Amino acid sequence: xxxxxxxxxxxxxxxxxxxxxxxxxxxxxxxxxxxxxxxxxxxxxxxxxxxxxxxxxxxxxxxxxxxxxxxxxxxxxxxxxxxxxxxxxxxxxxxxxxxxxxxxxxxxxxxxxxxxxxxxxxxxxxxxxxxxxxxxxxxxxxxxxxxxxxxxxxxxxxxxxxxxxxxxxxxxxxxxxxxxxxxxxxxxxxxxxxxxxxxxxxxxxxxxxxxxxxxxxxxxxxxxxxxxxxxxxxxxxxxxxxxxxxxxxxxxxxxxxxxxxxxxxxxxxxxxxxxxxxxxxxxxxxxxxxxxxxxxxxxxxxxxxxxxxxxxxxxxxxxxxxxxxxxxxxxxxxxxxxxxxxxxxxxxxxxxxxxxxxxxxxxxxxxxxxxxxxxxxxxxxxxxxxx
Length: 387
Prior knowledge:
By secondary structure, the protein is an all-alpha fold. Helices cover 79% and strands 0% of the residues. Mean pLDDT is 83; it is low at 189-193 and 381-387.
C-alpha cells in the first residue's frame, strides 16, 4: 500500500504536527489579538502577518529545495516554527502586541514549508499515484482535528499567564516535526541558477499551470478569509471558546478527512470534475452560513468550507504536476504557493475589518464572486483539466 511508504508516513505525521500548531493558532490568535491590539479591527493583524511570513518565504524555500533537497528546506521551516512559538509566548507574557505580530512571521515561514509536504509526497511516487500521495499527506490533518481543539483549550490556562502555554506548545510540536523530518532522504540536485521572472513567465504561458494555480489560490484564499473570522464571529455572538474550538475541529475534519477518498477520485475521475465539485461545496458553505448564527450553522458551514478547500487543493496540486518538467519543479511549485500566499494575505488582513465593520453575512457573500470566477475557469468542455 502507498500509505506504508516510509516517506509518506513521515510526511503524514509531520503534517499532523503542523496542523496541530495551526489549529491552536487559528483558535486563539485572533482572541489574543482582541486583548492586545489597540482596536478590534486589528485583531487579525497577527494572522495577516503570519501569511506575510509565508509569502516572503515560499518562493525562496522552493528554490532552496530544488537545489539542496526537500529535507534541508523542511528542516529550515520547522526550525522557524520553534522560534516563532517561543517569540509569541514571550510577547504574550510581556503583553506586547508588536512583539506578538513579529512572532507571527517565523510561524508563517513554518507554514510555508509545511505546504510543501504534499509536493514531497509526489516526488516519492510515480505519476499514476500523485493524487493519492497528495491526499494521504494532507490527511495527516485528521489527527490534528481530533486532538488540537482540546490541546488549545487546555494550553490556554496551562501557565499563570493565559495563552502563553499555547505558543510554547506550538514550539514543542514544531521541534518534534524537526526531529521527524531529519529522517527524510537528503536529496538535492545541481540545478543551475535561472532567471526567476523569466521562468515564471514561461510557466504562466501554459494554460494548465494558470488553471492549477488559480484553482488552489481561490480555494485557499476563501478558506483563510472565513476560517480566520469564524472565532471572532462566534465571540461576537456570545458563544464560548470551547464551542469555537469544537467548530474549528469540524472545520479541520472537513479539510482533511475527505482526503483519503479525494486522492483516488482525482486519479480516477480527473482534476476538472473534482475542482467543480469543490467550488459547488464552497458555495453551499456560504449559503449555510447566511442561514443562521447558532453553533450548528457555524459548524456545518465550517465543515463544508474545509471540504471544498480539500477538493480544490488536491485537484489543483495534482494538475500542476502535469504542466511542468522535473527541472522546473521548484519554480512551478513556488509559483503555486506564492499565489496561495498572496490571496491568503489579502484574506487575512481583510477578515478582521470585514467581520468588525460589515459583519458575518457580508464576509460570506464576498466568497461568491471569486467562486464564480473559478467556475468560469472550468468550462464543461475544457480540455485543460482533463486528467
